[in-house]
Amino acid sequence: MSEMGLPSCGGGPPQCRARFRAAYAASALTVLCLAVKGPLGFTQPMKGGQLESQPRQLVTTRAELTEVGPAELEAAIRSGPVVLDVYAVWCGPCKMLEPTLEKLAEQLSAFEEEGLQVPQVLRMDSDQHSAKATSLGVEGLPTVIFFKGGAEVARLEGAVGLSQLEEEAAAAFGMELAGEESVMQLVTMAELELLVQVEDVLVLGVLGGGKWEQGSASLDATLQLLCRQFGQRVQVAMTDASKVPGVAESLQLGDLPAVVLFQEGSKVMQLEGPDAAAVRVEELEDLLSEAMD
């Protein structure tokens, strides 16, 4: 047994993983897709043309949210479905919501290929357009309003998560956005260590609070999408570094949030800080395809 009470073995990696798989199957864990917020010290580089263990720099782009005034908003509402974010520059929860709305915009854009009218995701500054915000009945910030057929059909207040935005958008616009897979939380180091040993390929999202909260919210939304699109083939995991002591140190991370890719029990790639917060689903899918080739 390891120091953490996990089964250990002296055989090669395939035999070891087989034993861990048996222990994993017999355990009480029910893990579909997991998400981790902190560091693990698996630092052996992969050789033979596979991925390296050094942090990887990516050039990323993100879906842009269109700023509108009252006239542009009314025109958009008349032309088709709209998701409107009413915000203020000074509002902390508004800043936290922005990356989640960007992820929703990415999801909605996929319906263009299916011949469906794509809802526009718009933003309006409540300070610059206070009269319009008042006429819309906005009482708290942020407020997200869903319009269809020229009228409001739903609204949300506060910094809500991607899943809640998806549910409201699906109900408002008649679109199926949420998949069956969803990211689950790892709550102990034992669970994390076990998964690293069990899975051939594992993606860990390492999140944090405080100054890392906004970037972590963005990465969380990305991993939710990744899990739904890739979750049948790869385990995706997430945990909170502030709630699982020693995770960040064990993974030897220098910044949060972070994405760590494990292959056959070894850490082979990681993104940290702004790179992890801005990473797109397509980029992670490319890395996973490379790892599984």
Describe the 3D structure.
With 293 residues, the protein is an alpha/beta fold. It has two domains: 13-58 and 180-292, Glutaredoxin, CATH 3.40.30.10; 66-173, Glutaredoxin (3-Layer(aba) Sandwich), CATH 3.40.30. Helix content is 38%, strand content 20%. It has helices at 13-26, 70-79, 92-109, 130-135, 162-173, 189-198, 213-230, 247-251, 273-278, 281-292, and strands at residues 33-35, 66-67, 82-87, 120-125, 143-148, 151-157, 183-185, 201-207, 235-240, 258-263, 266-272. The strands form three sheets. The protein has a five-stranded mixed sheet with strand order 2-4-3-5-6, with helices on both faces. α3 (92-109) runs parallel beside α7 and α7 packs across α10. The longest helix is centred in the middle third of the chain and has 18 residues, at 92-109. The chain is elongated and about 55 Å long. It starts with 12 loop residues before the first helix and ends with a helix. Residues 1-62 have low confidence and may be disordered. Keywords: Disulfide bond, Electron transport, Transport. GO terms for molecular function: protein-disulfide reductase activity. Pfam families: Thioredoxin (PF00085).
TL;DR of this structure?
With 293 residues, the chain is α/β, with parallel strands linked by helices.
Q: What is the gyration radius calculated from CA atoms?
A: 21 Å
**Shape call:** elongated
CATH topology of the largest domain: Glutaredoxin
The multimeric state of the shown protein is: single chain
Number of domains: 2
Instruction: Give the second-level CATH assignment, the architecture of the largest domain.
Output: 3-Layer(aba) Sandwich
CATH superfamily of the largest domain: Glutaredoxin
Keywords: Disulfide bond, Electron transport, Transport
Pfam family, one: Thioredoxin
Protein name: Thioredoxin domain-containing protein
InterPro entries: Thioredoxin-like_sf, Thioredoxin_CS, Thioredoxin_domain
